[in-house]
Amino acid sequence: MSQILSKIPLEDVSKERLRLWLRLLKTTRSIETKLRENFRDEFGTTLPRFDVMAALSRYEDGLKMSEISGVLRVSNGNITGIVDRLSDDGQLVRVSVPGDRRASRVRLTKKGLQEFDRQAKAHEGWIAEALGEFTAEEAREITMRLLTSETPEEEAK
Amino acid sequence: MSQILSKIPLEDVSKERLRLWLRLLKTTRSIETKLRENFRDEFGTTLPRFDVMAALSRYEDGLKMSEISGVLRVSNGNITGIVDRLSDDGQLVRVSVPGDRRASRVRLTKKGLQEFDRQAKAHEGWIAEALGEFTAEEAREITMRLLTSETPEEEAK
DNA sequence: TACAGAAACTTCAAGTATAAAATATTTTGG
DNA sequence: CCAAAATATTTTATACTTGAAGTTTCTGTA
């Protein structure tokens, strides 16, 4: 067994990982570009807006600002502007937290949830198309392998 | 064989692909965040700057502006600002193209090439660490599978 | 040769992103 | 109880990103 494995020189491991990284980047970028275009053309919205709404849709009671940035892995100050605009559009509301005057909880409105559902359906279709080369098994297998290289982050309470 | 495969309901293919997409996104984002931080802390530069220098390093004769954006798959107008700043830093120069007064060819300076070599070494190490869970075989295998879902783009001449 | 159209690039507006500083509000240790 | 530390968020400065509009410069063709 180790004789078979040794056909790949050990020094090349980091080169193979680098190749994988460049491939991951190329694939996700090309899909992201397509999604961005679709969101723009069909819903007049953007990927970051959709991401925030997707995060909120998973939490009945909403999320605090810092929880959103934790879930989405983007910087804290960034969320403010996106939430501001979604709020202007009536897609979500900021609810003040009873015991803590610093924090506010962000929640989708009914309108926001309905809009998100429409977008999510389309989104799933776009992804299924973009990753159409993968069978369910392949998708599942790669997902699981990628699962290992994970750095867990703060979770919403 | 098809009996074994049929354990996975067909309707779930798009769900599996969606899961794969979300995993790809999470993985690449988390690695990108780490890289950004490293570039900042150790070289005082940014990922987009590194990307541009990496592209240029592969072409002895440099690249035209539109070729850079083609290779990196980012929008045309975007490159202008990045190249401006790299030029201010002396990492690259714009050389006018003899027959065409519209175009200019961008080329790394000696200083820029040396700096890029240092950065590229560190970069490879960071990636090897971030993708440390993958053996060379795994990395190679996943790279190849991802290779199929590709949309080719214009190449430099 | 004239000139419409293409090409290369820059500029622009709006939005997104980060890190760091500022503000306001708890919470905690003495 | 109170100053110091921690927490939640916003603000600020700078950079990056896109798509679209604008400028200048070719190029093909009538």
Query: Main sheet of chain A?
Result: 3 strands, antiparallel
Q: What structural category do the secondary elements of chain A indicate?
A: mainly alpha
Order of helices and strands of chain A: HHHEHHEEHH
Helix content of chain A: 55-70%
Shape of chain A: globular
Query: Which strand order does the major sheet of chain A show?
Result: 1-3-2
Gyration radius over CA of chain A: 20 Å
**Tally of DSSP β-strands of chain A:** 3
Number of helices of chain A: 7
Roughly how many Å apart are the termini of chain A?
A: 47 Å
Average pLDDT of chain A works out at 88
**Unreliable segments of 5+ consecutive residues of chain A:** 152-157
Strand content of chain A: 5-15%
Oligomer: homodimer
Q: Identify the biggest protein-protein contact and residues per side.
A: A-B, 48 and 48 residues
